[in-house]
């Protein structure tokens, strides 16, 4: 288990003996992320650029898995790993470093790990990736997923136009609450009917542009209300403006502004937002608190470089809360929005800011 999770269980008091051991299940592709930081500008053709910093970590679906695990949720990941050093590093970082259950994952002999190189500058990022689709599992034991995903309280799915993942329906049928995001529709159709797994989702969390295109509206709040006619809970992220949500079952709406921060690298911020919202939902928090917590975790993540490297745990959240309460000139109403953290957080034992990044794939012995 990550040393940055100081023993906080957000579902404490809600667990029962008959509950599944897994809180959240997810699947996808794990990349090795190599992040170069401290670049003054984009690389120029024909020149050599030196970065002042560098970090390495598991990326891709590992961003979401790490964010969930650092918030204290029992997380299970089904993914293929290469049998190269990169794959071994990613497996150890996730299983040993973050406490993520990889019993549904498998290693593919002769398959090299997908790699992404990310260059962060001027608050943006440029990425170059390389990889090949993993071959199907070779043994019967490895084929357990996707035909039989584990019982879980929740699952996170990434929807894609024209594609249905059988495991989503199976997980929902077994009682998992499905949370889904969506990527850019390269077909340009933006047709909700092309997302067949949406019918199994309890919550759908697109960004504002995606939501407006799918609903043919020109306002993200109107888009959220339109989406709530299709899913029980529609959450639309508004970037620097925060997030807006509509609970179709109760009619409750909530909007929470974003926290103003200096964004160094937005990699993985959407994954962290979803992880924060899933955590609050499983814990039974009010809708506005869930939005505020998700936005806070995303805001903390963009102040650091990398995807899974920057996912905050409870230690970071506690350090932030301690710091903002002691800063002069804070808006009392804004502080009150996060007062629900008071009963959740440990005493902050580490100073702000906290750093995670390491510049190597893995030391052979403790540094």
Strand order of the largest sheet: 4-1-9-10-11-12-13-14
Shape: globular
Query: Stretches where pLDDT falls below 50 for ≥5 residues?
Result: none
Number of helices: 10
How many beta strands in the DSSP annotation?
14
Strand content: 15-25%
- Give the biggest beta sheet: 8 strands, mixed
Structural class, by secondary structure, is alpha/beta
Query: What is the helix content?
Result: 25-40%
Distance between the termini: 19 Å
Order of helices and strands: EEEHEEHEEEHEHEEHHEEEHHHH
Mean pLDDT: 88
The Cα radius of gyration reads 20 Å
Architecture overview:
This protein is of the alpha/beta class and 367 residues long. It contains ten helices and 14 strands. The protein has helices at residues 61-70, 85-98, 144-147, 166-173, 208-215, 220-227, 269-282, 287-301, 314-326, 332-337; strands at 22-27, 30-37, 53-60, 75-78, 80-82, 106-108, 115-121, 124-130, 152-159, 177-182, 201-204, 233-237, 243-247, 253-256. Strands 4-1-9-10-11-12-13-14 form an eight-stranded mixed beta sheet, with helices on both faces. A four-stranded mixed beta sheet has the order 3-2-7-8. A two-stranded parallel ribbon has the order 5-6. Strand 12 (233-237) and strand 13 form a beta hairpin. Helix 1 (61-70) packs across helix 7 (269-282), helix 5 crosses helix 6 and helix 7 runs antiparallel to helix 8. The radius of gyration is 20 Å and the shape is globular. The protein starts with 21 loop residues before the first strand and ends in a 30-residue tail after the last helix.
